[in-house]
Amino acid sequence: MGTPDSTIPFNSSAFGTLGVEMEWMCVDGNSGSQIPAAPNVFAAVGNTPRIKPELFTSIVETNTDIQRNTPDAMRQLAELYRDVDAVLRKENAALLSSGTHPVSHWREQVVSDDTRYYKLLKRLQWVARRFNICGIHVHVGMPDGDTCIKAMNHLLPIMPIFLAISANSPFWHGEKTGLAASRIKIFEGLSQGGMPFYFADWKDFEHCTARLTATGSIESVRDIWWEMRPHPDFGTLEVRIGDMPTSYNDTAAYIAYVRAEAMAAAQDSERPKVHPSLIRENRWRACRYGIRATIIDPFTEELVPVLDWLEHRLQQLADQGYAASELELVSSQIDRWRNNGGGAESQRELFDTTDDFSAMIRAMRELDGWSNRCE
């Protein structure tokens, strides 16, 4: 069949504005197991677009309004955490930041009472039923569709760095997977999951979306679950590859870095097109080793430790004039990452120290830095 004709309006946003979505697991305060506490949260906080249900009743999504920069986004995220935490504390429950739950099984999770989720499960079956995973989505405002596509093309080679610094899902159903970011392997089961593609321009993306819709592959753009995608309703480029970061400071660093790179990608006139096979290999290395990965520099093809690459890249961004205060949120974490590793290593070390998942999860909550913002 020929390519269907379709237009998708792109709602322009102020360049560089931010919106952030975070997916939190609800856990029992003693055992650390996932519990279906989300409905009680929604009953207590009322109907708000800032605190929303996810596929399972053991997961709560918090998301910001449109923000001007990372510190503003972090302030609102801390306020939303406080609101949800206050409800859960009354039930001896808590929020856990992790890409996967270290031990709870997807089979034990209750599906939220939402028509869209039931339709999703009917279509995707076992693939969707396993989606007991949590990530962070960062929306960066773009002025128009062509600029958004340009930024997405330019960001493709850098996506594995986003995964490496957020990698925080080393366990799956109580098993050490050997991966730093096992969450991303669950997403690969989707027909529209995984890496996005290079596009010529916004019209090319419209044709792709129209083709998928006309063939019954998707119902709308919302059914495209690539690890980075345009969001025409919001007028943003949405970066979705990251695991839920391990701590408040890691979250700030992740958001600030994604924002800086997205803005640079939109403003740079040209960048070399990197073959998808190299991007895919770096994505695997980030999935396997996280912050300790040695990647293939996408532009020189030399092997380099990911933190060395990141440090050099931050200097380039600083030289290009990106906000020093935002870049400092990233660079201030590098020494800690070098010394202690990222979230995946932290989880493994906590388990090796405690040899008990309940104690490990309590320690994860104590170290995440979010609860300090509630005091």
What layout of secondary structure does this protein have?
Elements: E1 18-28, H1 38-45, E2 51-53, E3 59-63, H2 70-89, E4 93-96, H3 115-124, H4 126-129, E5 136-141, H5 145-155, H6 159-166, E6 171-172, E7 175-176, H7 183-187, H8 202-214, E8 228-231, E9 236-239, H9 248-267, H10 276-289, E10 294-296, E11 303-305, H11 306-319, H12 324-340, H13 343-354, H14 357-367
Antiparallel strand pairs: 1-3, 1-4, 1-5, 2-3, 5-9, 6-7, 8-9, 10-11
Helix pairs in contact: 1-2, 5-9, 6-10, 9-12, 11-12, 13-14
Describe the structure.
The chain has 375 residues and is α+β, with helices and mostly antiparallel strands. It has one domain: Creatine Kinase, Chain A, domain 2 (2-Layer Sandwich). It has 14 helices and 11 strands. It has helices at residues 38-45, 70-89, 115-124, 126-129, 145-155, 159-166, 183-187, 202-214, 248-267, 276-289, 306-319, 324-340, 343-354, 357-367; strands at residues 18-28, 51-53, 59-63, 93-96, 136-141, 171-172, 175-176, 228-231, 236-239, 294-296, 303-305. Strands 1, 2, 3, 4, 5, 8 and 9 form a 7-stranded antiparallel beta sheet that branches. Strands 6-7 form a two-stranded antiparallel ribbon. A hairpin with a 5-residue loop joins strand 2 and strand 3. Helix 1 packs across helix 2 (70-89). The termini are far apart. The mean pLDDT is 94. It is an enzyme of class 6 (ligase). Belongs to the glutamate--cysteine ligase type 2 family. YbdK subfamily. Keywords: ATP-binding, Ligase, Nucleotide-binding. This is Putative glutamate--cysteine ligase 2. GO terms for molecular function: ATP binding; glutamate-cysteine ligase activity.
